[in-house]
Each structure stands twice: as structure tokens, then as C-alpha cells.
Amino acid sequence: MKKDTSILVVDDEKSMCTFLDTVLSLKGYNVTSVMSGKDALDLIKNGFPCSVIVLDIMMPEIDGLETLRKIREDLKSEIPVIMLSALGKAGTVVKAMKLGASDYVTKPFEDEELELAISNVLEKKRLVEEVRELKEKLEQERKREECFIGISGNLNDIKKIIEQIADTDVTVLIQGESGVGKEVVARAIYVNSLRRDKPFVKVNCAAIPGELLESELFGYERGAFTGAIASKPGRFGIAHGGMILLDEIGEMSPALQAKILQVLQDGTFTRLGGRNETQVDVRILASTNKDLEKAVSDKTFREDLFYRLNVVNIDIQPLRERKEDIPLFCEHFLERYNKRYNRRVDAISKKLMKSLIAYSWPGNVRELENTIKKLVILEDENHILSELTPSLNHNVPKKTEDDSSQSVHTPNIPLKHLSKRAVLEVEKEMIQKALKQTNWNRKKAAEQLGISYKALLYKMKKIKQEAE
Ligand SMILES: Nc1ncnc2c1ncn2[C@@H]1O[C@H](COP(=O)(O)OP(=O)(O)OP(=O)(O)O)[C@@H](O)[C@H]1O
Ligand SMILES: [Mg+2]
Questions:
Q1: CA-to-CA distance for 56 and 42, rounded, in angstroms?
Q2: Would you give per-residue pLDDT tens digits along the chain (468 residues)?
Q3: Ligand 2 centre and the CA of 195: distance in Å?
């Protein structure tokens, strides 16, 4: 067990590295030591598979605290870190713990002290991973329960496409705003395909830092870089026989785009550090909320890859353009969450349904789902109504030819009122933009606009009154 546990020791003192290497190797750990924060960061950046990092605080150039900050913030790594601190540096230890250190040991220390810290940290990591795995399994179960529904013309067309292409092996590019149901469509293709008993692997290309994405997708060979003590298959390897969904493909670097193109062309790729090509049988689905055609013309996305991916294109409309789906989704989510939370919210009142249909749903179906979930949990329609009402998009009356709000036609409105109205118009536009960008999170929108939350609510109310 310990043989598989690799520990990275970072200390600028050679004697300390040698000491820790000897002590920990004797205990059966696999130890790699480096003498600077920079070397440690390089290893981690390249996907060094270590279980625990033992990090000295006092080091020249990048000290332990800065190294730790970079590990957590820049590299987004969650590898547990045990800090080695000098006696009487309580303040530094507190800082380290705040930055995300798992534990600390004060120099000079007994071997047992460090070993205990390591085994505690490993046990905690094991439990965290177990919980995460269980959660993922539960999520997978839930996803399996999820079906693709909809009555709008757009979704009916998509259903037909899915039926036609599910049991072929063509590549599909699924496009649409965030929350419209791209993943639901990808899973519907999978469940209706002949590959449904093989793995379905989803990789979010935007969530994994660029350097790690390649090893995540294609894996690496043993010895590909210092610390690669065992080979790793990569997501393409895991998906063999099944399907892979490359989510947010628009965020992929050009170098990786070339590798994906090769897999699409002949089903082969080379693992990091590998000499031989690996052959896989994987059907590729890709999704994006970016305008890929524009990315092609901006030269940030390879044209040849775009055409390879875009054999079949599924474009899901935003929910605001297919409002006839709203009542069906409401019913569907009511049933799901009543069951999940053991509630009995039976039907939605006419008044609430009117607001749900009028609302513009910038977060699309996901936002609608969350709203219904909230309704089921809180069992309070008024709360939902008050959240939907400040929606600015639908309450603004359309301007007509003789609309008196147009300044050119309103010579008898005092200038003072006109400028007030102009300010209001500009504010309305800025507020709408901020709300959209923050996915209708009013707190965040207020922050973005540099005003207080209260001030934002007040302004939204005023804009609404003005529009009525
Ligand atoms: N046609 C549909 N039928 C059933 N549920 C749907 C449908 N469309 C969307 N949903 C629900 O809406 C939520 C968001 O869908 P999904 O995760 O597929 O969106 P997405 O387009 O992949 O979003 P993102 O771009 O943020 O990844 C999911 O919880 C899903 O259950
Ligand atoms: Mg998605």
C-alpha cells in the first residue's frame, strides 16, 4: 500500500532532503525530493502523481507559503500539503493553514511525528475521495434517470435527429447557451446508441488547466516525467468502446485540437512519454456555448477540426425562444423534486405560471429547474413570484412609432425629466447586462456594478415602475 504512496519533499537544505528521503523510504513510501518551490511547482504542473507534499516554509526565492498559494490558486491542485515550520512561527503556521495546508510539523521533529501527520492526512484524503466517488455514483444514477423531454419545434427536431443518428458513429457538435440541455442531448444519443453498455465519459475542457488536460485525456506512460511511477490510461482509454463528450471544446488549446483531430481521423493517439500509438474505438461528441464558427474565423479554433466535429450539428435554442416547453418542464421538475424531497407541491397557480412564461430565463432550463426545486423546498409561491418579478426583460413595453418616451417626439417634457429618463435607460441597460453575466445573481451583479445590493434592488424596482 505504502509503495504506491508517493511523497514529494520540498526543502532547500540538502541534508534535510536526504534525511526525509531515508526516513520515509524506510517506512515504505516512494519519495521524490526537490530543493526549491519552483521545481515542486513544475512537477505538479506536469501532473506529478504524488499523494502528499512535505513543504518547508523557509526557502529562498519562492518560500513555502508562496509555493503553497501557487499550488492551490494557480495550479488548482488539492494534493494535501504538510508544512515544515521553524519553532516560534505560529503566525506563519496560521497563514499556511488559511492557504490550504493540511497539517504542519515544527522543526526539529521526531520521525514518528511526521509519519503520524502523513498517515492522518492520507486517511482524510481517502475519506474525501470515497465521499466524492459515492457522490459521483449518485449523480450518475440521477443522470441515468434523466430523460430528454420537450414539445417545442426545436426539441422535436432534435429528437428526430437523435433517433436518426444514435446508432451510427458520426461525430455530433451540440451548441447552445449555458443550461439549455447540451449534456442531456449527449446522454440521449448515448442511451439510444449501441454503445449504451459501454462507458460514457464527459470531460469539461474548460475546468481542467491547459497543461493537465492532455494527460487527463490521453494519459501517460510510466516514466514520462519525474514521478510518473505508473502509467495512466487517460479518459480516451477509459471510454474505449463507448463515447466521450468533450464539453466546452471551444476552450481547448490548438496543440490539443491537433491531437483530437488525429483521434477523429484514425482513432489513434500517443500517450505522454509513449513511443507507440494507442488505438481506441470511441465515438466523440462535442459541446460548446461559444460561437465556434466565429472562433474559426478568429483563428482560435482549427477549421479542419470544426468540420470534422460538425458532421451533425444540433443547435439547442435558448428557453426564452421556446416558451411552450416551460409548462412541461415545470411538471417534470415538480414530480422529480416532490419525489426527491418528499413534498407534495401539486400544481403551479395560473399567476405563477404566467410569470414563469413571461420571464426570460438567462440561465435557461437549469435556472428553471432550480426555481422549481426552490418552490418545492420552500413551498412558497410568493417567494418565487417576488424573485421573478424584477425580471426587466419582459416588462419593458415595446416602443411604437408614437411612443411618447422617445425624446424627439416629446417637446413638452421638461429637460430635467428627459435627462432623468436617459440616465434610467443607461442604468437599465447596464443592470440587465450585469444580471445576465452573473446568471441573475443579484448580489454578484451589484458587486460588478459597484453599488450596494439594496441600491440594485431599489433601481430594479424603479425601472420596473417606469416601464409599467
Ligand atoms: N430537454 C430536456 N429534458 C429534460 N431535462 C432537461 C432538458 N434540457 C435541460 N434539462 C435539465 O436542465 C439542466 C441543464 O442541462 P445540461 O446540463 O444538459 O445543460 P448544458 O447545456 O450542458 O449546460 P452548460 O453549458 O452549463 O454545461 C439539467 O439538470 C437537465 O436535467
Ligand atoms: Mg454541460
A1: 17
A2: 566 789 999 999 999 999 999 999 999 999 999 999 999 999 999 888 889 999 999 999 999 999 999 999 999 898 999 999 887 778 888 999 999 999 999 988 998 999 999 999 999 988 988 898 888 777 766 666 568 899 999 999 999 999 999 999 999 999 999 999 999 999 999 999 999 989 999 999 988 887 789 989 998 887 777 666 667 888 999 999 999 999 999 999 998 999 999 999 999 988 888 888 889 999 999 999 999 999 999 999 999 999 999 999 999 999 999 999 999 999 999 999 999 999 999 889 999 999 999 999 999 999 999 999 999 999 999 999 998 876 444 444 443 333 333 333 334 445 555 556 667 777 888 888 888 888 788 888 888 888 888 788 888 877 777 666
A3: 20
Q: Are 215 and 225 in contact (CB under 8 A)?
A: no
Burial class (CB in 10 A: 0-12, 13-18, 19+), 45: middle
Contact residues of ligand 1, CB 6 A cut-off: 146, 148-150, 155, 176, 178-184, 289, 365-366, 369
Helix ranges (H only) for 252-302 are 254-266, 292-297
CATH number of the 395-468 domain: 1.10.10
Coil, strand, or helix at residue 204? strand
Q: Give the right CATH number for 321-389 from 1.10.3720.10, 3.40.720.10, 3.40.50.1980, 1.10.8.60.
A: 1.10.8.60
pTM of the model: 0.63
Task: Give the nearest ligand 1 atom to 147 CA.
Answer: 4
- Which atom of ligand 1 is the closest one to the Cα of 183? 18
Instruction: Name the closest ligand to CA 156.
Output: 1
> Quick one: CA dihedral 136, 141, 144, 147, positive or negative?
negative
Q: Which atom of ligand 1 is nearest to the CA of 176?
A: 21
Same fold, 2-127 and 395-468: no
Domain ranges of the chain: 2-127, 165-316, 321-389, 395-468
Q: What is the CATH number of domain 165-316?
A: 3.40.50.300
Probe ligand 1: pick from 140, 183, 337, max atoms within 8 Å of CB?
183
Tell me which DSSP letter residue 232 carries: B
